[in-house]
Each structure stands twice: as structure tokens, then as C-alpha cells.
## 1
Amino acid sequence: MRTWQLRTLGYDGLALEERPEPQAGPGQALLRMKSASLNSRDLQVVHGIYPGSQLPLVPVSDGVGEVIAVGEGVTRVAVGDRVSPILFQTWLRGPITSSDWGQALGAGGCDGILSELAVFDEQTLVKVPAQLTDDEAATLTIAGLTAWQALFVADSVKAGDTVLVQGTGGVSIFGLQLAVAAGARVIVTSSSDEKLARARTLGAWETINYRATPEWQEEAKRLTDGVGVNHVIEVVGDHRRSIRALCIGGAISVIGYLQNLSFDGGTRGGVQETDVMGLILSNGRVLGIADGNRDAYEAMNRAIAIAGFHPVVDRTFAFEEVVEAMRYLESGSHFGKVCIRIGG
Ligand SMILES: NC(=O)c1ccc[n+]([C@@H]2O[C@H](COP(=O)([O-])OP(=O)(O)OC[C@H]3O[C@@H](n4cnc5c(N)ncnc54)[C@H](OP(=O)(O)O)[C@@H]3O)[C@@H](O)[C@H]2O)c1
């Protein structure tokens, strides 16, 4: 079977290699992988700016596969099930623990899923909604679950609330779709009017071009008659503006650091300035987010099955085109998710 390996940092360090077929041991399931999706995190791993990566490594965390064999004692999944492995392999329920951080697919010392065949502990697998294509189902693990965790686990967004999502990448478009499905009205920001028009077709209530309107928080306040928004999906690291966009008691979910991310210079994150007075005035809440646990993943999948929406797949690349797919994600020209078809 073929598997991608990251042997040295950078795109030149990625190689498609032959390996013996893995077998399912007791408590494990063997998956024939169908599709994967890329996240900003995968680029950070390849460029060496994601903490703790030990090489060589099978890259990429998010994917869906079909169970083709199970080991002794397996009851959670059966041959023929279409399933997805969770990101933090030991985080099944409750709050995350420090030991869960070392068990995340596709980083640290934990291999990812970019292989034709892969074995997982049955406890780490969740069934995906039936209405989704393989590519759509491959987008749930990080982008979908992070938006779900922010809106409905860390916070309790409800019908009638106003949510603002920054940009039109993977997490933000899931944030738009999940919030709309819950009856919230959503403001989307983007550098592109074309992408904003597309966001409206997904149910965006209002849109703001953050290039044309750099003080977008003021526009968000104006659009909400001076009230502000209940929740900001904060993927950018623009905390001072996000705090000023909040209504009384509103929350920013601290998810990303896109404005401080540079792949050519190799930098990530950094210290964000906050707005102490803005937080005091709004009684605002700042919520740190790190994906979600298995229980949350299953709850999200039930909600997506009921709501019946389809995650947005911008483009799908062939298994042999992983470097092209990563370069495309890095360009930022996508809307929603970028996938890699592995098989089937
Ligand atoms: N904490 C967690 O659990 C978690 C989970 C997932 C992701 N993340 C982090 O969240 C961030 C987003 O991840 P992703 O996978 O959704 O990224 P992505 O799909 O690559 O998102 C890229 C999009 O973000 C927008 N963007 C980029 N720079 C921006 C800026 N300065 N201001 C406003 N928008 C900007 C652009 O949208 P337009 O083209 O529309 O302008 C761009 O197309 C990353 O930093 C990632 O590491 C964290």
C-alpha cells in the first residue's frame, strides 16, 4: 500500500512510499482511506512551525475511510462502516488533558492519515453523516468540530444570536453553516467580494470586505444597530477589533493566528494585544478552543445529519498531488475546504 511520508521539512521532504499492509490487532479497525482534507495545521507541520513534530511522519489529520477488517473484541464499528478518526486520539469526553496534546494525528510523534490503509483503535472512530460524500465527510474532524466546539460547547449560541466569522477558510465556512443551521444570523468578512457573494448563497446575513473596511468591527456594530455580535469565530488573531465587535456578554473564540502566520519566514502565533477596557465594557468572554472531543464530534454529526447541509469542498486533488494541494491551500484562494481523494 502507498503512504505519504514527511521525511524532512518543506515540500521537498514529502514522498509517496510503499509500505506493507497493516493488520487490525485486538480492539482495532483497518480502514481503506477514501478521502482527506487539508488544514492550515498541515502546512504548519510541513514548514516546521507547528510545535513538537518528530520526523519522519505520515502527514495530515483529517480523513474518512471504510472499515474493511476488525480485530478481536471490536464492537464499536463493523466492516462496511464509513468512519473518521478523531484528532486527539485519547480525548473521548470531558475537558482536554495535557497528555491528549501528545496524541494528535499528523503532528508530534503521532502519524496522520495520508495512507491507502490505516489502523486505528476502535474508540477513536466516529461514523459520519450518510448524506455526505467522502470528500465532504473528510472535512469534519478539525474545521467542522472546531467551529462546533466554539459555537455550541465553549459557548451556547442560539437562534436569533448574531455570529461573525472571519474570512472564508475551512473553520469560518463551517462556522457560517453551523450557525445558520442553528437559526443565528451570520456576518462574514473576506478580502474578496466574490467570496462574500458566495457566502450569501450559504445564508450569510451581512458581509464586510475587511480590505475595503479595515475597521470592520465598527461596521459590525453599525449593522447590528450598535448592539454588537454575540460571538466572533476568531481565526485571525485580530483580538482588539473582535472584542470591540461584541455585544454585552458576547464571546470571542480564540482559534487561530492567520495574520501572524508566515510560511516563508516560518513564524506562527505570537502575542496578541488585547483590549482590556473593551472586555470590561462589554463584559466580554475570551474562549480558548482546541478542536473537540469524541462526544462533541458525534453530537455535531447528528446535527449535520438533521440539518442536512453539505460542507463546502472548494477543490479535490488526486492522491499523487498532495504537494499541489498544499500549495493551493497556502495561496489562500480557496473557499471552504481543500480535499485529497485517496481511493474509491
Ligand atoms: N484552535 C484550533 O483548534 C484550530 C482548529 C482549526 C484551525 N485553527 C487555526 O485557525 C486558523 C484558520 O484555519 P483554517 O484551516 O480555517 O484556515 P484556512 O482555510 O487556510 O483559511 C484561510 C482564509 O482565512 C482568511 N484570512 C487569512 N488572513 C486573514 C486576515 N489577516 N484577516 C482576515 N481573514 C484572513 C482568508 O479568507 P478570505 O480569502 O475570504 O479573505 C483566507 O482565505 C489557522 O490559524 C489555524 O491554525 C485552529
## 2
Amino acid sequence: MTPLRIDANRAEGTLRVEWADGHVTAYDAATLRWLCPCAYCRGEAGMPGWLDTNPTLTAEQTRLVDLSIVGNYALQPLWGDGHHTGYYTYMLLRDRCPCDECSRDRDRRHEAHASSPGSPATGAGDRHWHGGDR
Ligand SMILES: [Zn+2]
């Protein structure tokens, strides 16, 4: 969970993180803004946060102005509207990685949790016992 390289491109509004295991995570600013983990956006003590009200984000609110590194565990973006209270831990950034591979992993975890009865086992050719001549 250690970034080797962190690239914030303010012009394009993207954040790219290269991890020690070779994985690359790329966020666009809007996606990143929606992940803001601060108490205001996420709520606290059981209260819903601002992002939970499904607000329409303005261009300013999703404009990545600056990015600070907090200790050795998190990034703190500064947004065009002045919001800067979100500490995005490396764990969060990696866990919510929007790449295809990680999205699939999340879906799989989701399915495992949902355990919907009757849905046929997907993919994975582990049931080809009645001959497969294609
Ligand atoms: Zn926030």
C-alpha cells in the first residue's frame, strides 16, 4: 500500500498513483471529489454527510487546485471551492481504484456478500464435465 510515485495533473484534473506492487491507479478529479472521506462530506455519528445528499457538484468543487502529502499515509487535495478537509489515505485510494481490474474485484466481493440465490455461477469454466466440443 505504498505509492512509489504520485502525479497530480492540475491542468487535466487527474491523479495518478504508482504503487510498490506495480499497480497504477488513476483518478479524475470528479471521481476523487466524490470519494472525499471528511466528516462534512461523509457525515459523522450516524448523520449523513453532504455528499450523501447527492449534490450537483460545480466545476469549482471538482477542480483540483493543490495536493498535499500528509505524513506517509494520505493525500490531502485542495479543491476550487476551498474544501480541503479530506484526508485520502493510501488505503482508500487503492481500495477504490477505478481501474477495470479493481472494479471487477469489487463486483465480485459485492456478489459474494449479496449471495443472491438462483443466480447461475458466472464464468470460470470449472463445470465442463459434459464435454466441450467447440
Ligand atoms: Zn470533504
